[in-house]
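Format is chain and fold; as here:
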Amino acid sequence: MLDYSRSFIETQFPVSKVSKESYKERKANLGQTLTGLGKWWGRKPLILVRATVLGVLLPVSDNPKKDRDIFLKILTMDDEGLLLRKSKNLTTKEVYNLLTNKEKESYYTSTSTEEKPTYKKGITKAEKEHLQELTFNRMSYDEKITYCDRPEHVTGLSEIAWTEINSHLETSASNLQELIQQLGEKRFSQAPIIGDCFAGGGSIPFESARIGAKVFASDLNPVASVLTWSGLNIAGASSDEINQLRHFQHFIYDEVDKQIEEWKIEHNEEGHRADSYLYCNESVCPECGYNVPLSPSWVIGKGTKTVAILKDDGKNGFDFDIVQGASKEQFNIAERMKTIKGNNLYCPHCKKETPIAVLRKDRKDDQGETIYGLRKWNKNEFTPRQSDVFQERLYCIRYVKNYVDEKGNNKTERYFRSPNSDDIKREEKVIKLLSERFPDWQEKGYIPSSLIEGGYNNDQPIRERGWHYWHQLFNPRQLLILGLFNKAVYEHHKTKKEAVLGLLGVNRLADYNSKLSRWHSGASAEKSEQTFYNQALNTIFNYGLRALTSLRTVWFMNINNEHINGKSIVKSIDARSINEVCNVWITDPPYADAVNYHELTEFFLAWDKLLLDKILPEWSSDSKRALAVKGTGETFNKSMIEVYRNLSNNMPDNGTQVVMFTHQDVKVWAELAMILWSSGLRVVSAWNIATETESGGLKNGNYVKGTVILILKKQTSHDIAFQDELYRKIKKEVQFQIDSMRDLDDKEDPNFSDADYLLASYASSLKVLTAYKDIEGIDVQYELSKPRNANEESPIEALINKAVKLAYDYLIPEGVDNLIWRDLLPEERFFIRGLELEIGNIHQISAYQELARGFGVGDYQDMFENFKANTVRLKTASEYRTKGIDRDTFSSSLMRHVLVSIYQSVQAESTAEGKNYLKAKYDQNNEYWDKRSAIMEILGFIARFENISHMNHWHQDAYYARLLREAVRNDGI
């Protein structure tokens, strides 16, 4: 019997598999469907959106395991689906090593080895395919998906699969789109409408529409709205439309190319065309008066072994000697001549350092506030005045030489050189060309004219360089190229899609070609990188500029399209003003100052105003930063309540809201709970999806490298609760939730980790709290008005923290005695549960951070052998050795001394040494005999690792732990 009053995601969610698929998608980089359209921060993985929408729409039955099997089948995360997605073959060696000895005899020669297996003669293609399937099915989920396409690339399930799905769900679908519509009709009496009022980069609307839902998407920020619109209408366009759009892109590029060639500003006297220019700031050393070019490194390319060596010109300055194929000594010279050391100017002439703040003439006022000394550039300026602290200088150009060798083959050679007099004349010509067009182009909007409005991110270019207008983040050559593109798009577009694609193209050019574009000198690639490599406008002392030919890969964006037929509405509107009714609202709100979108996107809006005002006049081209939901504190909380109350009012009584956020601070959880509670919503479940990647753009601290999804329903209760009865109800709910998850879990392929059980305790407390209209003694409005960094623990925080403690008391590791577990120190419990994470093949930093927070362990880094993203693991006994023993709480603990005893046994190849160590340590007052049971329990736990294949680093220690346990057991008999 199907129950449509509840949904699958309210009762269970396969977080492990969804996390792994989300991570795989994130690591695809340019292969991701939407990232090619333009820069946005924190787009949610499409598979997470797909799983969430499906989870909200699927009903539950009286067979939870069957519900999960069907869910996984629809998402192609079951065994059959993974085979369908399999796009790469295992190597002959991989197949061989996964077969039994008997199977090897049937298919491989007798001389085959693990390193060099050879098929028998006459083996058929069908037999090889059988072996591929046989061995693939023996792999773990993690191993399998490395050979698979992503779920979004599967065109359709088998007829047998659809028969099983339809039988369980009482539907008649033959594809995912039909299924989504039928599930919506059963639940809401109509095809489902999915809404997102913080659409951002457009992941939620795009994927919802792609799988068959109707979509309403909005964002106050016009850049976000354009990206969302382009996802639905360009990434969602047909292949024929994409071909037409590509033709338009080529036409615009060719128009710009013709003009650049006509001006002769990129070709040198030999006819070779430049593809890159390198610039640096230059400033006067206050100690000796020399003009010093500024850079933290003069290495141009490690692959081509190219460096810039400064030469004293004897005239108060330096010339550049560009050396390609440099020797080790020349590299050393270039390294010694770097002129930015820390935050100081280093002068190679007088060998003295000057703080950059002193150069800028920064000073403190009477109140101790910094007054920045640089003058602010005027609106009509695009080059520095001679009197400015920082000048700008071209110091290297890379040219491309095309030629035919003696064999008649076309060849390309790239070479770096310092600019000569002809190059300098071309630079002067660029300035002249821009000067002639500058007033007209600014007036028409081909290049920016708007002021940089100060803010957390936007103040940096103003105070560190004096750039006060957006166009000043670009040098004359960059402005000329980008202005040509903007002009050509404006004059030649015929459709809205062409205009939007052109706008997105100009945004990408701006991102990759500004004075904030770092030059990458690595061995694999020597090129300039994007401005927004992280979430800031970072000024730099030297930068790379891409000439037109190097901008091809930026302009011709990677569009991974799939035609979307569903109805969609996109608006640029304040979430508080929405009046569209949606069955499901899925939102990823701005939270806890994670990213200042309203500021950063003004970098792009400065270029977009012209086209936005023409093609989307109903949208404002202003960032609307005054209306943006931002920051923290009472104003932020009030805005969030207004938004979510409005969404709740624009949702049917049986509708669902899903709120996604990335934070692990209990204060934030408590605040979010009160915001949603005040908005008329109640929490029904929560799940944690780990999407951790190593990236410079991620936040540190309390920002977890994953996504928490809260499932909410409308608040319908009128009951009032008393605080003294809540603890009992939370305890019952925590235990029920953990037991339910354990019953559902697959022992062979665990779906839930400690982090998920802990999150369940958070959700359980929120579920109990938000089930009531009011709670006696808790003034929600007062609590929301307090600063988040207040030391005082709010009543909501206290209840959540109690729920966490309840969970950790209840989560006793398998095989560990209850009484012994309760006697262990928090640090010991953390170490044991951390090892359980390893058993489950969980290596995300966030999982261990959550454990530490739950146990109240602050100092834990020394326990880890590796603490890098997705490769986290604790030290073994042999890696720990006797280092730091008795130095702190953990190193003085029983657990730590047991680890030393294992290490001693391994070193001596005898358990006698380990046993004697423990007896000597705990000989006083017969402590050894009192602790004997606990010692055996710990040794027995570690002995489990001996036969776990992915924990081979523990195998030797686990072997001796098993022997030592028996030695301790038999001691004194």
In short: The CA atoms of residues 109 and 121 lie 8 Å apart.
